[in-house]
Amino acid sequence: MKILVVGTGAREHAIVHALASEAAAGGDAHDLHAAPGNPGMGRQATLHAVDANDGAAVAGLARELGVDLVVVGPEAPLVAGVADAVREAGIWCFGPSAEAAQLEGSKAFAKDVMAAAGVPTAMAHVCTTEQEVADALDAFGAPYVVKDDGLAAGKGVVVTPDRDAALEHARAALAARGAEGRVVVEEFLDGPEVSLFCISDGAAVVPMVPAQDFKRVGDDDAGPNTGGMGAYTPLDWAPPGLVDEVVARVAQPTIEEMARRGTPFSGVLYVGLALTSRGPRVVEFNARFGDPEIQAVLARLRTPLSRVVVAAARGDLGSLGPLRWSDDAVVNVVVASEGYPASPRTGDPVTGIAEAEALDGVHVLHAGTARSDDGTLVSAGGRVLSVVGRGADLAAARAASYAGVAKIGLQGSHHRSDIALKAERDEVRVP
Ligand code: AMP
Ligand code: GLY
Fold first, then answer.
1. Structure pTM?
2. pLDDT for position 129
3. Which pLDDT band holds residue 157 (cuts at 50, 70, 90)?
4. pLDDT tens digit sequence for 385-399
Protein backbone atom coordinates (compact mmCIF):
# COMPACT_ATOMS: atom_id res chain seq x y z
CA MET A 1 0.00 0.00 0.00
CA LYS A 2 0.94 3.63 -0.38
CA ILE A 3 0.75 5.31 3.03
CA LEU A 4 1.41 8.90 4.14
CA VAL A 5 2.36 9.43 7.80
CA VAL A 6 1.85 12.97 9.14
CA GLY A 7 4.13 14.32 11.88
CA THR A 8 7.77 14.72 12.88
CA GLY A 9 8.35 12.85 16.13
CA ALA A 10 9.55 9.50 17.39
CA ARG A 11 5.91 8.34 17.52
CA GLU A 12 5.62 8.91 13.77
CA HIS A 13 9.01 7.31 13.19
CA ALA A 14 7.79 4.29 15.17
CA ILE A 15 4.73 4.08 12.91
CA VAL A 16 6.90 4.27 9.77
CA HIS A 17 9.34 1.73 11.24
CA ALA A 18 6.51 -0.71 12.02
CA LEU A 19 4.99 -0.34 8.54
CA ALA A 20 8.41 -0.75 6.91
CA SER A 21 9.14 -3.84 9.03
CA GLU A 22 6.12 -5.76 7.70
CA ALA A 23 7.99 -6.84 4.58
CA ALA A 24 10.87 -8.37 6.56
CA ALA A 25 8.29 -10.37 8.55
CA GLY A 26 6.91 -11.85 5.33
CA GLY A 27 4.19 -9.24 4.86
CA ASP A 28 3.62 -6.51 2.29
CA ALA A 29 6.23 -3.99 1.20
CA HIS A 30 4.64 -0.55 1.42
CA ASP A 31 5.45 2.67 -0.40
CA LEU A 32 5.87 5.01 2.57
CA HIS A 33 5.76 8.81 2.65
CA ALA A 34 6.01 11.29 5.50
CA ALA A 35 4.99 14.93 5.89
CA PRO A 36 7.20 16.53 6.97
CA GLY A 37 8.92 13.61 8.75
CA ASN A 38 12.45 13.68 10.15
CA PRO A 39 15.88 12.43 9.06
CA GLY A 40 15.32 9.03 10.69
CA MET A 41 12.03 8.51 8.87
CA GLY A 42 13.85 9.53 5.68
CA ARG A 43 15.59 6.14 5.63
CA GLN A 44 12.28 4.28 5.22
CA ALA A 45 9.95 6.87 3.69
CA THR A 46 10.03 9.67 1.16
CA LEU A 47 9.87 13.02 2.97
CA HIS A 48 7.70 15.92 1.83
CA ALA A 49 8.18 19.45 3.19
CA VAL A 50 4.52 20.01 3.98
CA ASP A 51 3.19 21.62 7.18
CA ALA A 52 1.60 18.85 9.26
CA ASN A 53 -1.05 21.26 10.62
CA ASP A 54 -2.25 22.46 7.21
CA GLY A 55 -5.20 20.27 6.24
CA ALA A 56 -5.46 21.54 2.66
CA ALA A 57 -1.74 21.00 2.08
CA VAL A 58 -1.74 17.49 3.57
CA ALA A 59 -4.87 16.48 1.62
CA GLY A 60 -3.35 17.98 -1.53
CA LEU A 61 -0.15 15.99 -1.07
CA ALA A 62 -2.09 12.79 -0.36
CA ARG A 63 -4.09 13.24 -3.55
CA GLU A 64 -1.03 14.13 -5.62
CA LEU A 65 0.77 11.01 -4.38
CA GLY A 66 -2.34 8.87 -4.80
CA VAL A 67 -1.95 7.31 -1.36
CA ASP A 68 -4.36 4.65 -0.08
CA LEU A 69 -4.23 5.90 3.49
CA VAL A 70 -3.09 8.83 5.64
CA VAL A 71 -2.04 8.23 9.26
CA VAL A 72 -2.06 11.40 11.38
CA GLY A 73 0.35 11.04 14.31
CA PRO A 74 0.21 14.09 16.61
CA GLU A 75 -2.67 15.88 18.32
CA ALA A 76 -2.16 19.35 16.83
CA PRO A 77 -3.08 18.40 13.23
CA LEU A 78 -6.03 16.35 14.50
CA VAL A 79 -7.38 19.27 16.53
CA ALA A 80 -6.74 21.50 13.48
CA GLY A 81 -8.95 19.26 11.29
CA VAL A 82 -6.32 17.59 9.10
CA ALA A 83 -8.14 14.22 9.22
CA ASP A 84 -11.37 15.96 8.12
CA ALA A 85 -9.59 17.55 5.15
CA VAL A 86 -8.11 14.19 4.09
CA ARG A 87 -11.47 12.39 4.33
CA GLU A 88 -13.19 15.21 2.43
CA ALA A 89 -10.66 14.58 -0.34
CA GLY A 90 -11.99 11.01 -0.51
CA ILE A 91 -8.93 9.37 1.07
CA TRP A 92 -8.97 6.94 4.00
CA CYS A 93 -7.56 8.51 7.15
CA PHE A 94 -6.47 7.05 10.49
CA GLY A 95 -7.23 9.70 13.11
CA PRO A 96 -10.31 11.42 14.54
CA SER A 97 -12.13 14.48 13.21
CA ALA A 98 -11.42 17.87 14.79
CA GLU A 99 -14.67 17.63 16.74
CA ALA A 100 -13.87 14.17 18.08
CA ALA A 101 -10.27 15.21 18.88
CA GLN A 102 -11.75 17.62 21.43
CA LEU A 103 -11.53 14.60 23.75
CA GLU A 104 -7.88 15.62 23.94
CA GLY A 105 -8.14 19.27 22.90
CA SER A 106 -10.31 20.28 25.84
CA LYS A 107 -10.06 18.73 29.27
CA ALA A 108 -13.45 20.23 30.16
CA PHE A 109 -15.06 18.55 27.12
CA ALA A 110 -13.43 15.24 28.03
CA LYS A 111 -14.80 15.48 31.56
CA ASP A 112 -18.27 16.16 30.17
CA VAL A 113 -18.12 13.07 27.92
CA MET A 114 -16.80 10.95 30.80
CA ALA A 115 -19.65 12.08 33.03
CA ALA A 116 -22.25 11.30 30.36
CA ALA A 117 -20.68 7.89 29.67
CA GLY A 118 -20.31 6.98 33.35
CA VAL A 119 -16.52 6.64 33.03
CA PRO A 120 -14.61 6.46 36.34
CA THR A 121 -12.35 9.51 36.63
CA ALA A 122 -11.13 12.07 39.16
CA MET A 123 -13.75 14.45 40.54
CA ALA A 124 -13.17 17.84 38.96
CA HIS A 125 -14.29 21.46 38.91
CA VAL A 126 -14.03 23.56 35.76
CA CYS A 127 -13.10 27.09 36.90
CA THR A 128 -13.08 30.42 35.10
CA THR A 129 -12.04 32.72 37.97
CA GLU A 130 -9.34 32.72 40.62
CA GLN A 131 -11.96 32.59 43.36
CA GLU A 132 -13.49 29.43 41.86
CA VAL A 133 -10.01 27.91 41.71
CA ALA A 134 -9.31 28.76 45.36
CA ASP A 135 -12.64 27.24 46.44
CA ALA A 136 -12.02 24.07 44.44
CA LEU A 137 -8.49 23.67 45.83
CA ASP A 138 -9.85 23.92 49.35
CA ALA A 139 -12.71 21.52 48.61
CA PHE A 140 -10.29 18.76 47.45
CA GLY A 141 -7.33 19.54 49.72
CA ALA A 142 -3.66 18.69 49.08
CA PRO A 143 -1.97 17.41 46.95
CA TYR A 144 -3.42 19.87 44.45
CA VAL A 145 -3.99 19.12 40.73
CA VAL A 146 -4.49 22.07 38.36
CA LYS A 147 -4.81 21.65 34.59
CA ASP A 148 -4.74 24.20 31.83
CA ASP A 149 -7.83 23.49 29.66
CA GLY A 150 -6.17 23.59 26.22
CA LEU A 151 -3.41 21.61 24.47
CA ALA A 152 -0.14 22.04 26.34
CA ALA A 153 2.07 19.12 25.18
CA GLY A 154 1.89 17.45 28.58
CA LYS A 155 3.22 20.53 30.35
CA GLY A 156 -0.04 22.27 31.30
CA VAL A 157 -0.57 20.22 34.46
CA VAL A 158 0.72 21.01 37.93
CA VAL A 159 0.55 18.49 40.79
CA THR A 160 1.84 20.05 44.00
CA PRO A 161 1.44 20.07 47.78
CA ASP A 162 1.90 23.87 47.66
CA ARG A 163 -1.42 25.77 47.51
CA ASP A 164 0.28 29.01 46.36
CA ALA A 165 2.02 27.22 43.48
CA ALA A 166 -1.30 25.66 42.45
CA LEU A 167 -3.02 29.05 42.49
CA GLU A 168 -0.16 30.67 40.59
CA HIS A 169 -0.37 28.04 37.80
CA ALA A 170 -4.14 28.60 37.56
CA ARG A 171 -3.69 32.38 37.48
CA ALA A 172 -1.15 32.13 34.65
CA ALA A 173 -3.31 29.68 32.66
CA LEU A 174 -6.41 31.87 33.07
CA ALA A 175 -4.51 35.01 32.07
CA ALA A 176 -2.88 33.38 29.03
CA ARG A 177 -6.23 32.67 27.37
CA GLY A 178 -8.05 35.90 28.30
CA ALA A 179 -11.83 35.66 28.47
CA GLU A 180 -11.65 32.06 27.17
CA GLY A 181 -9.45 31.01 30.09
CA ARG A 182 -10.55 27.84 31.90
CA VAL A 183 -8.70 25.60 34.27
CA VAL A 184 -9.70 22.23 35.66
CA VAL A 185 -9.03 21.54 39.36
CA GLU A 186 -9.11 17.84 40.24
CA GLU A 187 -8.99 15.46 43.13
CA PHE A 188 -5.56 13.78 43.46
CA LEU A 189 -5.39 10.17 42.22
CA ASP A 190 -3.01 7.82 44.05
CA GLY A 191 -1.53 4.74 42.38
CA PRO A 192 0.64 3.90 39.36
CA GLU A 193 -0.22 5.19 35.90
CA VAL A 194 -0.96 3.07 32.85
CA SER A 195 -1.47 4.02 29.20
CA LEU A 196 -3.84 1.85 27.17
CA PHE A 197 -4.30 2.59 23.47
CA CYS A 198 -7.70 1.54 22.17
CA ILE A 199 -8.15 1.45 18.40
CA SER A 200 -11.64 2.36 17.23
CA ASP A 201 -13.48 2.77 13.96
CA GLY A 202 -16.20 4.82 15.63
CA ALA A 203 -18.09 1.76 16.91
CA ALA A 204 -15.86 -1.25 17.66
CA VAL A 205 -12.91 -1.12 20.08
CA VAL A 206 -9.69 -3.17 19.85
CA PRO A 207 -7.23 -2.65 22.73
CA MET A 208 -3.45 -2.79 22.44
CA VAL A 209 -1.23 -3.92 25.35
CA PRO A 210 -0.80 -1.51 28.27
CA ALA A 211 2.42 0.43 28.74
CA GLN A 212 3.82 2.80 31.33
CA ASP A 213 5.28 6.23 30.66
CA PHE A 214 7.69 8.28 32.82
CA LYS A 215 6.57 11.91 32.72
CA ARG A 216 8.96 13.60 35.12
CA VAL A 217 12.35 14.67 33.84
CA GLY A 218 14.51 13.05 36.53
CA ASP A 219 15.13 9.69 38.16
CA ASP A 220 12.66 8.77 40.92
CA ASP A 221 10.14 11.15 39.34
CA ALA A 222 12.06 14.27 40.34
CA GLY A 223 11.66 17.61 38.56
CA PRO A 224 9.06 19.00 36.17
CA ASN A 225 6.72 17.14 33.82
CA THR A 226 7.90 16.51 30.26
CA GLY A 227 6.36 15.03 27.14
CA GLY A 228 7.63 11.65 28.44
CA MET A 229 11.15 10.39 29.15
CA GLY A 230 10.71 6.67 28.56
CA ALA A 231 8.28 3.76 28.56
CA TYR A 232 8.04 -0.01 28.73
CA THR A 233 5.74 -2.94 28.16
CA PRO A 234 4.51 -5.44 29.39
CA LEU A 235 3.25 -4.46 32.84
CA ASP A 236 3.51 -7.73 34.73
CA TRP A 237 2.34 -5.99 37.91
CA ALA A 238 -1.01 -4.84 36.46
CA PRO A 239 -4.08 -6.63 37.80
CA PRO A 240 -5.38 -9.48 35.60
CA GLY A 241 -8.43 -8.40 33.65
CA LEU A 242 -7.34 -4.74 33.56
CA VAL A 243 -7.57 -4.41 29.78
CA ASP A 244 -11.04 -6.00 29.59
CA GLU A 245 -12.26 -3.82 32.45
CA VAL A 246 -10.96 -0.62 30.83
CA VAL A 247 -12.49 -1.52 27.47
CA ALA A 248 -15.85 -2.29 29.10
CA ARG A 249 -15.99 0.62 31.57
CA VAL A 250 -14.04 3.32 29.74
CA ALA A 251 -13.33 2.88 26.04
CA GLN A 252 -16.56 1.29 24.79
CA PRO A 253 -18.87 3.70 26.69
CA THR A 254 -16.80 6.69 25.52
CA ILE A 255 -16.90 5.56 21.87
CA GLU A 256 -20.69 5.04 22.21
CA GLU A 257 -21.17 8.47 23.79
CA MET A 258 -19.19 10.15 21.01
CA ALA A 259 -21.30 8.35 18.38
CA ARG A 260 -24.48 9.33 20.23
CA ARG A 261 -23.39 12.99 20.04
CA GLY A 262 -22.99 12.70 16.28
CA THR A 263 -19.20 13.02 16.47
CA PRO A 264 -17.96 9.42 16.18
CA PHE A 265 -14.37 8.90 17.27
CA SER A 266 -12.16 6.82 14.98
CA GLY A 267 -8.44 6.40 15.41
CA VAL A 268 -6.72 5.82 18.77
CA LEU A 269 -8.41 6.60 22.03
CA TYR A 270 -5.46 6.93 24.42
CA VAL A 271 -6.74 6.07 27.88
CA GLY A 272 -4.40 7.42 30.57
CA LEU A 273 -5.25 5.70 33.85
CA ALA A 274 -4.28 5.77 37.48
CA LEU A 275 -4.73 2.42 39.23
CA THR A 276 -5.97 3.83 42.51
CA SER A 277 -6.97 2.20 45.78
CA ARG A 278 -10.56 2.56 44.53
CA GLY A 279 -9.94 1.00 41.11
CA PRO A 280 -8.85 2.35 37.72
CA ARG A 281 -9.59 6.04 37.15
CA VAL A 282 -9.09 7.96 33.91
CA VAL A 283 -6.44 10.68 34.26
CA GLU A 284 -6.76 11.88 30.68
CA PHE A 285 -7.88 11.02 27.20
CA ASN A 286 -5.73 11.69 24.18
CA ALA A 287 -6.74 11.37 20.55
CA ARG A 288 -3.55 9.67 19.27
CA PHE A 289 -0.84 7.22 20.27
CA GLY A 290 1.23 8.16 23.30
CA ASP A 291 4.83 9.16 22.79
CA PRO A 292 7.10 7.53 24.17
CA GLU A 293 4.83 4.51 24.91
CA ILE A 294 3.93 3.58 21.33
CA GLN A 295 7.61 3.17 20.43
CA ALA A 296 7.68 0.27 22.94
CA VAL A 297 4.19 -1.09 22.17
CA LEU A 298 4.67 -1.29 18.39
CA ALA A 299 7.92 -3.23 18.88
CA ARG A 300 5.75 -6.07 20.28
CA LEU A 301 2.90 -5.91 17.73
CA ARG A 302 2.76 -9.02 15.53
CA THR A 303 -0.40 -8.17 13.59
CA PRO A 304 0.69 -6.00 10.65
CA LEU A 305 0.10 -2.38 11.69
CA SER A 306 -1.16 -1.55 8.20
CA ARG A 307 -4.08 -3.97 8.68
CA VAL A 308 -4.99 -2.30 11.98
CA VAL A 309 -4.97 1.28 10.72
CA VAL A 310 -6.74 0.43 7.47
CA ALA A 311 -9.50 -1.47 9.30
CA ALA A 312 -10.03 1.46 11.67
CA ALA A 313 -10.03 4.02 8.86
CA ARG A 314 -12.48 1.99 6.75
CA GLY A 315 -14.85 1.22 9.61
CA ASP A 316 -14.45 -2.56 9.55
CA LEU A 317 -12.43 -3.11 12.73
CA GLY A 318 -14.85 -5.86 13.70
CA SER A 319 -13.30 -8.10 11.03
CA LEU A 320 -9.77 -7.72 12.41
CA GLY A 321 -10.00 -9.95 15.50
CA PRO A 322 -7.75 -9.55 18.54
CA LEU A 323 -4.25 -8.21 17.95
CA ARG A 324 -1.29 -10.61 18.21
CA TRP A 325 1.72 -9.74 20.38
CA SER A 326 5.22 -11.04 20.96
CA ASP A 327 6.06 -12.12 24.53
CA ASP A 328 9.19 -9.96 24.50
CA ALA A 329 9.68 -7.02 26.83
CA VAL A 330 10.51 -3.64 25.32
CA VAL A 331 12.03 -0.57 26.98
CA ASN A 332 12.25 2.85 25.32
CA VAL A 333 14.64 5.41 26.80
CA VAL A 334 14.41 8.99 25.55
CA VAL A 335 17.63 10.94 25.02
CA ALA A 336 16.85 14.62 25.63
CA SER A 337 18.86 17.71 24.83
CA GLU A 338 20.55 19.90 27.41
CA GLY A 339 18.05 22.19 29.12
CA TYR A 340 14.93 20.11 28.27
CA PRO A 341 12.12 20.68 29.19
CA ALA A 342 12.61 24.36 30.18
CA SER A 343 14.86 25.54 27.32
CA PRO A 344 16.23 22.81 25.07
CA ARG A 345 19.54 23.51 23.38
CA THR A 346 19.59 22.61 19.66
CA GLY A 347 22.08 22.42 16.81
CA ASP A 348 24.59 19.99 18.40
CA PRO A 349 25.89 16.96 16.45
CA VAL A 350 24.23 13.61 17.25
CA THR A 351 26.43 10.52 16.84
CA GLY A 352 26.44 6.80 17.58
CA ILE A 353 23.08 5.76 16.10
CA ALA A 354 24.57 3.12 13.79
CA GLU A 355 26.68 1.77 16.67
CA ALA A 356 23.58 1.55 18.88
CA GLU A 357 21.58 -0.22 16.16
CA ALA A 358 24.41 -2.72 15.65
CA LEU A 359 23.59 -4.06 19.12
CA ASP A 360 21.23 -7.02 19.47
CA GLY A 361 17.59 -5.99 19.93
CA VAL A 362 18.18 -2.23 19.62
CA HIS A 363 16.67 0.26 17.23
CA VAL A 364 16.75 4.04 17.38
CA LEU A 365 13.88 6.34 16.47
CA HIS A 366 14.36 10.01 15.71
CA ALA A 367 12.35 12.83 17.27
CA GLY A 368 14.11 16.21 17.46
CA THR A 369 16.81 15.76 14.81
CA ALA A 370 17.68 17.64 11.63
CA ARG A 371 20.39 17.76 8.97
CA SER A 372 22.62 20.83 9.09
CA ASP A 373 23.71 22.50 5.84
CA ASP A 374 26.73 20.22 5.56
CA GLY A 375 24.61 17.10 6.12
CA THR A 376 25.59 16.51 9.76
CA LEU A 377 22.83 15.07 11.96
CA VAL A 378 22.11 17.63 14.71
CA SER A 379 19.68 18.01 17.58
CA ALA A 380 16.59 20.08 16.74
CA GLY A 381 14.28 19.72 19.72
CA GLY A 382 13.91 18.70 23.36
CA ARG A 383 13.41 14.98 22.96
CA VAL A 384 16.03 14.00 20.40
CA LEU A 385 15.99 10.19 20.12
CA SER A 386 14.08 7.16 21.40
CA VAL A 387 16.40 4.22 22.02
CA VAL A 388 14.28 1.07 21.94
CA GLY A 389 15.62 -2.19 23.40
CA ARG A 390 13.92 -5.57 23.38
CA GLY A 391 14.65 -8.78 25.21
CA ALA A 392 13.11 -11.86 26.75
CA ASP A 393 12.30 -9.93 29.94
CA LEU A 394 12.50 -6.39 31.27
CA ALA A 395 16.04 -6.87 32.58
CA ALA A 396 17.23 -7.88 29.09
CA ALA A 397 15.23 -5.11 27.40
CA ARG A 398 16.62 -2.48 29.82
CA ALA A 399 20.14 -3.75 29.29
CA ALA A 400 19.70 -3.50 25.50
CA SER A 401 18.19 -0.03 25.60
CA TYR A 402 20.79 1.40 27.98
CA ALA A 403 23.64 -0.19 26.02
CA GLY A 404 22.21 1.67 23.01
CA VAL A 405 21.95 4.95 24.93
CA ALA A 406 25.63 4.59 25.93
CA LYS A 407 26.60 4.65 22.23
CA ILE A 408 24.81 7.95 21.56
CA GLY A 409 26.90 11.12 21.53
CA LEU A 410 25.16 14.47 22.11
CA GLN A 411 26.81 17.20 24.13
CA GLY A 412 24.94 18.03 27.35
CA SER A 413 22.22 15.42 26.70
CA HIS A 414 20.40 13.69 29.54
CA HIS A 415 18.15 10.67 30.05
CA ARG A 416 16.53 8.88 32.95
CA SER A 417 18.47 5.88 34.21
CA ASP A 418 15.48 4.24 35.92
CA ILE A 419 13.05 3.51 33.07
CA ALA A 420 11.28 0.20 33.96
CA LEU A 421 13.66 -0.32 36.90
CA LYS A 422 10.95 -0.67 39.58
CA ALA A 423 9.01 -3.06 37.33
CA GLU A 424 12.14 -5.12 36.73
CA ARG A 425 12.59 -5.34 40.51
CA ASP A 426 8.91 -6.11 41.04
CA GLU A 427 8.50 -2.97 43.16
CA VAL A 428 5.43 -1.45 41.49
CA ARG A 429 2.39 -1.73 43.75
CA VAL A 430 -1.25 -0.96 43.06
CA PRO A 431 -2.61 0.51 46.34
P1 AMP B 1 -2.51 15.05 31.99
O2 AMP B 1 -2.00 16.06 30.99
O3 AMP B 1 -3.91 15.23 32.37
O4 AMP B 1 -2.16 13.67 31.58
O5 AMP B 1 -1.61 15.19 33.29
C6 AMP B 1 -0.19 15.04 33.22
C7 AMP B 1 0.29 14.23 34.40
O8 AMP B 1 -0.08 14.86 35.65
C9 AMP B 1 -0.35 12.86 34.50
O10 AMP B 1 0.28 11.91 33.70
C11 AMP B 1 -0.18 12.56 35.97
O12 AMP B 1 1.15 12.15 36.24
C13 AMP B 1 -0.40 13.88 36.60
N14 AMP B 1 -1.82 13.99 36.98
C15 AMP B 1 -2.83 14.47 36.22
N16 AMP B 1 -4.01 14.42 36.87
C17 AMP B 1 -3.76 13.89 38.08
C18 AMP B 1 -4.58 13.58 39.24
N19 AMP B 1 -5.89 13.85 39.25
N20 AMP B 1 -3.97 13.03 40.30
C21 AMP B 1 -2.65 12.78 40.29
N22 AMP B 1 -1.82 13.05 39.26
C23 AMP B 1 -2.37 13.61 38.16
N1 GLY C 1 3.04 9.82 26.80
C2 GLY C 1 2.34 11.02 27.01
C3 GLY C 1 1.66 11.53 25.84
O4 GLY C 1 1.85 11.08 24.73
O5 GLY C 1 0.85 12.44 26.02
1. 0.94
2. 94
3. confident
4. 999 999 999 999 999
Q: How far is the CA of 153 from the centre of ligand 2 (A)?
A: 8
Total count of domains within the chain? 4
Same domain, 361 and 266: no
Residue 370 maps to which CATH number? 3.90.600.10
Judge whether residue 177 has pLDDT over 90: no
Please give the number of the atom of ligand 2 that sits closest to the Cα of 227: 2
pLDDT band at 152 (very low <50, low <70, confident <90, very high): low
What separation in Å is there between the alpha carbon of 106 and the centre of ligand 1?
Answer: 15
Q: How far is the CA of 26 from the centre of ligand 2 (A)?
A: 31
Q: Which ligand is nearest to the CA of 274?
A: 1
Whether the pLDDT of residue 155 is over 70: the answer is no
Residues 200 and 147 placed together within one structural domain of the fold: no
Say if ligand 1 is within 6 A of residue 145 CB: yes
In this structure, is residue 349 part of a structural domain? yes
Residues framing ligand 2 (Cβ under 6 A): 154, 213, 228, 286, 290-291, 293
CA of 348 to the centre of ligand 1 (A): 32
Domain holding 268, by residue range, is 193-319
* CATH number of the domain encompassing residue 143: 3.30.1490.20
Whether residue 110 lies inside any domain: the answer is no
> Is residue 36 in contact with ligand 1, taking CB distance under 6 Å?
no
Quick one: 201 and 295 in the same domain?
yes
Cα distance between residue 304 and residue 354, in whole Å = 26
